[in-house]
Design brief:
Blueprint: H1 13-26, E1 36-40, H2 45-56, E2 62-65, H3 67-73, E3 83-87, E4 93-99, E5 103-106, H4 112-115, H5 125-140, E6 152-162
Parallel strand pairs: 1-3
Antiparallel strand pairs: 2-6, 3-4, 4-6, 5-6
């Protein structure tokens, strides 16, 4: 099941499968799970392109997920080792990452140590908190939810697998 927030184009399932098979063949020396998830990270086309570039440069090394959205949308909960295909705003598969850790922090308790995995333009808490408050409130609104200090946030460090940075 693929759930993506409104914004980016829906990826073509055949294109996703072809990308996955290409990654598996290219990374045959690395152990990969049997399945994958799809995510889009960004607010719009320019920020999505910037996020992809930050990941490729090794500047952004993780992401964040809301358990409330997982529950509301019926997504599977992420797990360490999950492979995630990241798509651009056009829905084209661009990167493959693997979650290396997952831990939960309440939104009101997020620190600079947590946001250190995000891209350098938004790591500072004075930028990160309002940006994510606005973004997540837009995603939560259809479910009659809103960000709060007690809201759990999954902090998800990842490693870039494809293109292979080795």
């Amino acid at each position: 099941m693929i759930w993506l927030p409104d914004g980016c184009a829906r990826p073509d399932p055949a294109e996703l499968e072809a990308f996955w098979q290409h990654c598996r063949a290219t990374l045959s020396d690395r152990e990969l799970p049997d399945n994958w998830q799809v995510r889009w990270i960004g607010l719009d086309e320019p920020t999505t392109d910037e996020v992809i570039e930050l990941i490729l440069a090794g500047d952004k090394t993780g992401t964040f997920t809301l358990p409330w959205l997982i529950t509301a949308t019926g997504q599977p909960a992420p797990a360490v080792g999950d492979a995630i295909i990241l798509v651009d705003f056009a829905g084209t598969p661009k990167l493959l990452v693997r979650l290396t850790d997952i831990y939960t922090v309440n939104f009101g308790d997020i620190t600079a140590a947590d946001t250190a995995i995000d891209g350098s333009p938004v790591r500072d808490l004075s930028i990160w908190i309002p940006l994510h408050t606005n973004y997540w409130n837009a995603l939560l609104a259809p479910y009659d939810l809103a960000t709060s200090a007690e809201m759990p946030v999954l902090v998800e460090p990842f490693e870039l697998l494809f293109p292979d940075p080795r």
